[in-house]
Request: fold
Amino acid sequence: MAIRFDELVSDYIREKRWHPSQQLIELEDGGVELRLKLSSLVEIQRWILSWGGQACALGPAELVESLKAAARMIQERAGRFYLSQGLKRPAEAYLKDAHFGYIQWGAMALAQNLEKAFPELLFQTHRSLAASQRRCRPLWCHACHRVTRESG
Reply:
């Protein structure tokens, strides 16, 4: 398995012996890639998540997918938290990202649960905001059951 660490934590990664099988590969941007031979992915997912944005799994695919799933769930929890604090704008951003991620991941039941719980946040239009930012926003099309793009 391979994990990329950015330059902010790479010195710490270099200093320690994490596993007998470890190999370190120096990266041009100052980061480091840690390669390990492990028999299980159970604990490594939590360890990678504990590094926040400073670590990224490069493989195996099973680990990368499990981290993506965990990230979507974290986004949903963050959205629910911000909403409970009366902070609609960050809640909306986190919930929309979680919804879109669930759809990409194929977790339609999770996406539909969010749709039922937060229709006013997930499906309101943001044409003025999108136009001012000149961005496209992903939308779930219920008619054709796929992600479409709405341009501002």
About this structure: The two ends are 41 Å apart (CA to CA). The mean pLDDT is 85. The beta strands are 2-5, 23-26, 32-35, 55-59, 136-141, 146-151.
